[in-house]
Specification:
The complex is a heterodimer.
Chain A lengths: L2 H12 L1 H39 L4 E9 H9 L3 E7 L1 E7 L7 E8 L11 E5 L9 E5 H7 L6 E6 L2 E12 L19 E7 H7 L5 E9 L1 H4 L3 H11 L4 E6 L4 H42 L1 H10 L3 H41 L11 H28 L2 H5 L16 H4 L4 H12 L1 H39 L4 E9 L1 H8 L4 E16 L2 E10 L23 E4 H7 L6 E6 L7 E9 L7 E4 H7 L6 E8 L3 H13 L3 E6 H45 L1 H10 L3 H37 L13 H28 L2 H6 L3
Parallel strand pairs in A: 4-9, 6-8, 14-18, 15-17
Antiparallel strand pairs in A: 1-10, 1-11, 2-10, 3-4, 3-7, 5-8, 6-9, 7-8, 12-19, 12-20, 13-14, 13-16, 13-19, 15-18, 16-17
Helix pairs in contact in A: 1-10, 2-8, 2-10, 2-11, 2-20, 3-7, 8-11, 8-15, 8-20, 10-11, 14-22, 15-20, 15-22, 15-23, 20-22, 20-23, 22-23
Chain B lengths: L12 E14 L2 E14 L3 E5 L6 H8 L7 E6 L2 E2 L5 H10 L1 E4 L11 H9 L8 H7 L15 H14 L4 E5 L7 H16 L4 E6 L10 E6 L2 E7 L12
Parallel strand pairs in B: 3-8, 3-9, 6-7, 7-8
Antiparallel strand pairs in B: 1-2, 1-4, 4-5, 9-10
Bound molecules: adenosine-5'-diphosphate (ADP) and magnesium ion.
Amino acid sequence: MKVLDRKLVRELRSSSFLLLAVGSIMAIGVSAYAALGSAYRNLMTAQRLYYADCRMADFTVDLKKAPLADVTAVGALPGVVEIRPRIQFLATVDLENVLEPINGIVISMPNERRTVINDVVLRQGGYFTDRRDNEVILNDAFARANKVYPGMWIHLLLNNRRQELFVVGTAISSEFTYLVGPGSMVPDAKRLGVFYIKQTFAEEVFDMQGACNQVVGRLAPQVRERPDDVLRRAERLLDSYGVLNTVPLRDQPSNRFLSNEIMGLRAFGIINPAIFLAVAALVLNVLMSRLAEQQRVVVGTFKALGYSNAAIFWHFLKFGLAVGAMSGLGGCLLGYWLAGGMTAMYDTFFEFPSLENRFYADITTQALCIGLACGMLGSYHGARQVLKLEPAVAMRPKPPAVGGAIWLERIPSLWNRLTFPARMALRNVLRSRLRTAAGIFAAAMGATLSVDALLLAFETNYMVDFQFELIQRSDIDLTFKDEQGRDAWDEAARLPCVDRAEPLFDVSCTFSNGSHTRKGAITGVLPDAKLMIPRDTEARPLRIPESGLLLTKKMAQILHVEAGDVVEIRPTKGLRETHRVRVAEIADSFLGIGVYADIHFLSRLMNEEFAVTGVQLQVRPGDEQRHALYREIKQLPAVQGVSARADIVRNVKETLVKNQHVFIGLLVMFAGVIFFGSVLNSSLVSLQERQREVATLRVLGYGPWQIGNLFLRESVLVNGVGTLLGLPLGYLLNYGIVVAYDTEMFRIPLINPTQVWLIVIVLGTLFGCAAHLVVQRSIHKMDWLDALKTRE
Amino acid sequence: MTLPANQPPPPGVLLRLTDVGKTYHMGEVDVQVLREVTLNIYDHQVLAILGPSGSGKSTLLNIIGGLDSSSHGSVWYRDREMTRFSPRELTVYRREVVGFVFQFYNLVPNLTARENVMVSTEISRNPLDVDEALDLVGLKERADHFPSQMSGGEQQRVAIARALAKNPELLLCDEPTGALDYATGKRVLRLLVDACRKLGKTVVIITHNAAIAQVADHVIRLRSGEIVEVHDNPEPAPPEEITW
Ligand SMILES: Nc1ncnc2c1ncn2[C@@H]1O[C@H](COP(=O)(O)OP(=O)(O)O)[C@@H](O)[C@H]1O
Ligand SMILES: [Mg+2]
């Protein structure tokens, strides 16, 4: 090894704490890049392969009922490559030894195995046989969660008839990669299953001979990105069969969840590493500038001996490169591990044939290069200083540092009030500008990240509580297959142990105002409803007008209407007559593009005396009672779906809390590394720089703790200012994210909880103090007599 | 004797300075540190530059060593005009021609004695063997010691070994004994004189101590940046015999 490299290695070894401080920040930046990049690639790859395997549909059209012969025209539309008509219904499922009602999505599949759009990937057992008509393939997660295996019989309530089905196999399909039931946000494999049945059997039990109620199709690559035109034409073509809904792939619920997650990974995969690496580069700069300063004489000697500028520059740059290389390697390892953790977590939400954490040579190479680049960037300034040093000047003792007054001293009224140690701290902080700037920036970024992540966690919790404590207050929700009359409500009210029953009337329709149109639904509620209370963003209950519609702000914006205007609505079911309705009120809401109306008004509008599509129940507490109720509900033929709010809330919260713990744990660690690393680096550098000052103080009789205090003051000042700056920055970043995620479906509430600010301040202080303990130890161990003897 | 400044010096002259001046600009004022220094440095001789502190000795040495540039006049190294050297050529000059010995040794603290010597052998074209160089200064046994484990005299000897190991023509020593005690200082002087007498180097020693100048073949005296006296020692004293 070259002798200069030996010098380098020894220097690296002797400044291990400093390197640890810088290196860990850098390593986290690199690992964030590698982890988020790999997780992104893992999900991306899994999605692409899975979609290709299953021939994932590019669009879905839901119909009331259409003859097979007539839907083939859709397949002939330009841009449409291939279609598949199928039958899909919702059903309730009755499993032995499961009391709670279970919802099922029933889908028809060809009797014989062949490749189709939205195909399945078999996991256990096999495909349909020709031994029975009533065979079923379950989605794998449901089978596992409920311990149903091939060879068992299960019961489904199909089209008001209880059907016995023989389980031949379990399967997964890309259209249900993220399977969530209505009203939930996280999958619940126990309560929601997908049931694939034979085409002929489906036709028979649903009275769909030669017909279908859903068309799934694939588009040519050219139109895949902008499918709206083709879909409009398909809709027009099928209009007479009652198009309920047309969903392009981007709006398909499972795909949207998955794709949002992937896009989020990509965005965070750039922002997060960038923050860490910027901090690391700056902190390294402080260290390198100090090193360059400290080695003036050595550098002068090298120059005198005939070393070229390039050789010396390179020597110093290598210091940064070494830090970069070590952090890069560590970061890649950590990143691979983190990516594994993230991927394993995703594997619990998303159901893929295989979701593996792969090793990506290119991402790893990039991550390593980023580490090296960051190291180089961080040492560039210091190495440049070395270059500029004139050898003749370098050899002369450095003139004493300019100890001029700082600007604060020009405000005597303030300055004179400060204690002596405070003045010393202020002087040092204001004089070493680069170090102070780096410290403030690092603390600010640490605080920004923590604030942002904590706010997101608080906001998610707020949203869940808002939705499930304030808006939805029923215990059990029933949805009916078709519109029912008042008697369905009465019947539900008479179910055992029901304290209160409230009707809901959902009307899917197309809203239009001139050229502005939008598909959506009107929810008819009782004006004095207690179990479902739509609320605005201030949590005030929305006032349901006696006549006319209440539009959420977003819907009003889409339709370009104001209160008092008239919109046209055309229901997608029933007679599908166009009605003109007044917009009575507009309210701001977190949830999507909702439209509300008084159930009586809406019924009249639909030419009904009183119509319901669902009933919400408040049930007396107690397992006994609930089980009795469940038994009854399972017998109700008109019921298409049952959701137990308590179950959903529990499931959502458990999942969220579990993930938040991991998320917040990581965040605390990461932000902590920034706080810790930057305080440690800046204090140790400052300590090195002021060895003589410290020695002199020791001679004067200062103890190590008193000296430590001087340094602590500076750290607290810099770290504190940075943290305080980071609070509003974090809020801004959070605001940006909230705006970015402001979709039609929902909006993240912007909240401002005091705890977040306090937690972040405590975090910054704790980690800063922890770093100071290391500094204190160095002060205790410092050989100050030696420092007095050495020549600067 | 008038020397033509625009022509190379005759053989036997290693360096020729003609009318060299150095001015520092300190804000508004110009400080003239060297003026009209004209001087020949001959091969295989010991030259002492004597002068009080602040008289410009180090500045002159730095110009000779290619560490600093003159503001005026010309410097010839054999048949090449140094004052026209590019920074690159200056680096090569320092690497190939000059060996420096400093008052405070300037060893790299985290390298051993041997490694400190290697710092110069690694870049020179025709170096001595590292151990041979250490042997020359009598420190073969201390080769693996770090500077902090050695006395000032030993450190200075390592520095001399480092300078010699490059096998330079010219050894430039800025107050080489300035930080050393009497006996150690003499020992170091002996090494420098031997470098000239036995190894044939040209040695320039800067000192503010007139006694030390007795070991030199030539002595020039500087005061306030000007040469005030030049004299030859036909019989230089051996270092062991001088006292201060
Ligand atoms: N970079 C500089 N800027 C201004 N003045 C300088 C500089 N370097 C040296 N000097 C001045 O030049 C004079 C000569 O310095 P120096 O050559 O070191 O003298 P000596 O080595 O004889 O003590 C001194 O007065 C010193 O202050
Ligand atoms: Mg001097």
